[in-house]
Amino acid sequence: MNWHTRRLLLLDFETSGVDPHRDRIVTGAAIGVGGDQPTNVRDYLINPGIPIPAGATEIHGVTDEQAAQGTDPAVTVLEIANLIMQSSRAKVPVVGHNVVYDLTMLWAELTRYGHESVANWLAGVRPVVDTKIVEHHLDPFRPKLPKPWTKRPDEACGSHQLTECCRLWGIELSAEDAHGAAADALAAGRLAWRLATDHLRFARFDSKPTERVDVAAMSLDDLHEWQVGQYAERALSFQSYMRGEQRGKPDEVDPGFVANTQWPVQSPPAGWSPADLPVVAEAVSA
């Protein structure tokens, strides 16, 4: 059997902001699906220990008062990490959309609460399937908005964010459900299945031939390593853009910009401390 027809562990966190090393987990979902076994949903409300910015509350709906009733983060993040560890040992992949963010956030939380040995293990976690990486590879030239020069109909344009990917690949995820951890985790799992079974869905819109990887045919080990390379390649391309080395450079060029090429868990910036608080707390967009 191909990996997408076997057991998967779907993961998603909703958080206090966009910085995976300094913000905090507010809600989480870890869902075991597939493999001819019952679906096992674990849904978490976690007390982040810091105020939740209004912008983040607008997205995931959790207020400070609600979060105060959540579980102890020191206990809960270890529980989630142990679940991932058990799945990894059974060769069950962690699946999520932009899951590098979620796994990095979990690493930081484990470190913050003194679970260094588990955090060290998580830094090398595998196998992982990041649907954002796979989806971007399968439809790399899709414009976010309709363009006069593209062959695409308006409905085939859109970003690579989860809600847009689900719309484009025929996955149900309403605006009301989006940014709930369980709903987003399940949507990422369904997207992973669709990417594996319909990887040529958008090939007809290519202006030039583009080779697409048949992700369903890859072993989990090969798929994991391929994603490492894909992520690094895109990160370095973005670095070149931010440094003004590409045509269409940004208005403000930063010649010293350095992109983080690590996947699926990213090391903290220099001088980071687990006790750091967010510098700017903004809403998270999955």
Look up the CATH topology: Nucleotidyltransferase, domain 5
User: Uncertain regions: pLDDT < 50 for 5+ in a row?
Assistant: 281-286
What is the topology, as strand order, of the major beta sheet? Answer: 3-2-1-4-5
Give helix and strand order, one letter per element, not per position: EEEHHHEHHEHHHH
Proportion of residues in β-strands: 5-15%
Number of strands: 5
Gist of the model:
Helix content is 36%, strand content 10%. By secondary structure, it is an alpha/beta fold.
List keywords for this structure.
single chain, about 290 residues, alpha/beta, Nucleotidyltransferase, domain 5, 5-stranded mixed beta sheet, 5 strands, globular
Structural notes for this entry:
This protein is α/β, with parallel strands linked by helices. It has one domain (3-242): Ribonuclease H-like superfamily/Ribonuclease H (Nucleotidyltransferase, domain 5), CATH 3.30.420.10. The chain has nine helices and five strands, in the order βββαααβααβαααα. A five-stranded mixed β-sheet has the order 3-2-1-4-5, sandwiched between helices. β2 and β3 (40-45) form a beta hairpin. It is globular, with a radius of gyration of 19 Å.
How are the elements arranged and paired?
Layout: E1 8-15, E2 25-33, E3 40-45, H1 54-60, H2 64-67, H3 73-89, E4 94-96, H4 99-112, H5 116-122, E5 128-130, H6 131-138, H7 162-168, H8 181-197, H9 220-242
Parallel strand pairs: 1-4, 4-5
Antiparallel strand pairs: 1-2, 2-3
Helix pairs in contact: 3-4, 3-5, 4-5, 6-8
